[in-house]
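Researcher: Go.
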Amino acid sequence: MGKRDELIAKYAEDLKSKCGMTPDMALLTKVTIGCGPAIYNDDASTVAATQASELETVKDNFLVKKLGLADGPQLMEAINAVIDTYGRSERNKYRAVVYYMLVKHFGKESVYG
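Model: Structure:
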Protein backbone atom coordinates (compact mmCIF):
# COMPACT_ATOMS: atom_id res chain seq x y z
CA MET A 1 0.00 0.00 0.00
CA GLY A 2 1.44 3.36 -1.05
CA LYS A 3 1.61 6.53 1.01
CA ARG A 4 -1.45 8.01 -0.72
CA ASP A 5 -3.50 4.86 -0.04
CA GLU A 6 -2.50 5.02 3.62
CA LEU A 7 -3.62 8.65 3.81
CA ILE A 8 -6.94 7.86 2.10
CA ALA A 9 -7.52 5.07 4.66
CA LYS A 10 -6.76 7.54 7.46
CA TYR A 11 -9.18 10.09 5.98
CA ALA A 12 -11.88 7.40 5.65
CA GLU A 13 -11.39 6.51 9.32
CA ASP A 14 -11.78 10.18 10.30
CA LEU A 15 -15.02 10.40 8.31
CA LYS A 16 -16.36 7.30 10.09
CA SER A 17 -15.15 7.91 13.64
CA LYS A 18 -15.16 11.71 13.94
CA CYS A 19 -17.82 12.78 11.45
CA GLY A 20 -20.24 9.84 11.65
CA MET A 21 -20.21 9.39 7.85
CA THR A 22 -19.68 6.35 5.69
CA PRO A 23 -17.33 7.59 2.99
CA ASP A 24 -17.79 7.04 -0.73
CA MET A 25 -14.27 5.68 -1.25
CA ALA A 26 -14.15 6.46 -4.99
CA LEU A 27 -15.08 10.10 -4.34
CA LEU A 28 -12.74 10.37 -1.33
CA THR A 29 -9.90 9.05 -3.50
CA LYS A 30 -10.64 11.62 -6.24
CA VAL A 31 -10.88 14.50 -3.73
CA THR A 32 -7.60 13.39 -2.14
CA ILE A 33 -5.85 13.23 -5.53
CA GLY A 34 -7.32 16.67 -6.29
CA CYS A 35 -5.53 18.08 -3.24
CA GLY A 36 -2.25 17.29 -4.96
CA PRO A 37 1.05 17.25 -3.11
CA ALA A 38 -0.46 19.21 -0.19
CA ILE A 39 -1.56 15.93 1.42
CA TYR A 40 2.10 15.01 2.02
CA ASN A 41 2.93 18.29 3.79
CA ASP A 42 2.08 18.35 7.50
CA ASP A 43 1.02 22.00 7.46
CA ALA A 44 -0.79 22.05 4.11
CA SER A 45 -2.58 18.73 4.69
CA THR A 46 -4.72 20.23 7.46
CA VAL A 47 -7.14 23.14 7.65
CA ALA A 48 -6.47 25.67 10.40
CA ALA A 49 -10.11 26.18 11.32
CA THR A 50 -9.37 28.96 13.82
CA GLN A 51 -7.73 31.18 11.19
CA ALA A 52 -10.17 33.33 9.23
CA SER A 53 -7.64 33.71 6.40
CA GLU A 54 -7.39 29.93 6.03
CA LEU A 55 -11.18 29.60 5.81
CA GLU A 56 -11.27 32.37 3.19
CA THR A 57 -8.67 30.42 1.18
CA VAL A 58 -10.82 27.26 1.36
CA LYS A 59 -13.82 29.30 0.23
CA ASP A 60 -12.06 31.12 -2.63
CA ASN A 61 -9.76 28.41 -3.96
CA PHE A 62 -11.92 25.34 -3.41
CA LEU A 63 -15.59 26.29 -3.30
CA VAL A 64 -15.52 29.14 -5.83
CA LYS A 65 -12.68 28.14 -8.18
CA LYS A 66 -12.77 24.33 -8.01
CA LEU A 67 -16.47 23.62 -7.40
CA GLY A 68 -17.68 26.68 -9.34
CA LEU A 69 -20.02 27.94 -6.62
CA ALA A 70 -21.17 31.55 -6.46
CA ASP A 71 -19.61 33.48 -3.58
CA GLY A 72 -21.96 34.34 -0.75
CA PRO A 73 -22.55 33.89 2.97
CA GLN A 74 -23.81 30.32 2.39
CA LEU A 75 -20.25 29.22 1.56
CA MET A 76 -18.79 30.27 4.91
CA GLU A 77 -21.85 28.80 6.67
CA ALA A 78 -21.14 25.48 4.95
CA ILE A 79 -17.45 25.58 5.92
CA ASN A 80 -18.42 26.25 9.54
CA ALA A 81 -21.02 23.45 9.47
CA VAL A 82 -18.39 21.02 8.17
CA ILE A 83 -15.92 22.10 10.86
CA ASP A 84 -18.63 21.66 13.51
CA THR A 85 -19.29 18.15 12.16
CA TYR A 86 -15.57 17.34 12.20
CA GLY A 87 -15.32 18.72 15.75
CA ARG A 88 -13.95 22.17 16.56
CA SER A 89 -11.76 20.67 19.27
CA GLU A 90 -10.28 18.17 16.81
CA ARG A 91 -6.69 19.33 16.36
CA ASN A 92 -6.03 17.86 12.91
CA LYS A 93 -8.75 18.60 10.41
CA TYR A 94 -7.47 17.00 7.24
CA ARG A 95 -7.95 19.11 4.11
CA ALA A 96 -9.12 16.12 2.04
CA VAL A 97 -11.78 15.29 4.65
CA VAL A 98 -13.01 18.90 4.85
CA TYR A 99 -13.12 19.14 1.04
CA TYR A 100 -14.91 15.79 0.77
CA MET A 101 -17.61 16.93 3.20
CA LEU A 102 -17.99 20.23 1.31
CA VAL A 103 -18.39 18.35 -2.00
CA LYS A 104 -21.10 16.20 -0.38
CA HIS A 105 -22.74 19.24 1.28
CA PHE A 106 -23.14 21.05 -2.06
CA GLY A 107 -23.88 17.90 -4.09
CA LYS A 108 -20.93 18.65 -6.39
CA GLU A 109 -19.74 15.07 -6.83
CA SER A 110 -20.01 15.60 -10.61
CA VAL A 111 -16.92 17.88 -10.47
CA TYR A 112 -14.95 14.71 -9.71
CA GLY A 113 -16.89 12.59 -12.22
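Model: The chain has a mean pLDDT of 97.
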